[in-house]
Design brief:
This protein has a single domain, classed as HIT-like (HIT family, subunit A, 2-Layer Sandwich), CATH 3.30.428.10. The chain is about 20% helix and about 20% strand. The protein has helices at about 5-10, 60-75, and strands at about 20-25, 25-30, 40-45, 85, 105. A five-stranded antiparallel β-sheet has the order 1-2-3-5-4, covered by helices on one side. The longest helix is centred in the middle third of the chain and has 16 residues, at about 60-75.
């Protein structure tokens, strides 16, 4: 369920224009506006899930789908061989700034 003040819900619902590098029925992929690396993608479920701690039993397949999509996106962005990093920030103390589950893919360093 989307929340009115969630920027990622607004992006998913196309209320904020963003170029999707990939989209399916469950998630979208787009570039981070404040990249930490030459390639910094965000993989975001369409369903509003606040974060890792809020995934219910029986719903963990979204994490698998995010990771497998990240693997495919790394190949598409040509960083699968040179290397990349995947990470979730969990809660404010773990660096989470947008409270909508998302996976970071960063790479592209020389």
């Amino acid at each position: 369920m989307a929340t009115d003040d969630c920027i990622f819900c607004k992006i998913v619902n196309r209320e904020i224009p963003t170029e999707f590098l990939y989209e399916n029925d469950r998630l979208v992929v787009f570039k981070d506006i404040n990249p930490l690396a030459p390639i910094h993608l965000l993989l975001v479920p369409k369903e509003h899930i606040r974060g890792i701690n809020d995934i219910a039993d029986g719903e963990w397949d979204i994490v698998t789908e995010l990771v497998m999509t990240a693997k495919d996106m790394a190949a598409k962005m040509s960083v699968d061989k040179s290397g990349y990093r995947l990470f979730f920030n969990v809660e404010k103390g773990g660096g989470q700034e947008v409270f909508h589950l998302h996976l970071h893919l960063i790479g592209g360093w020389e």
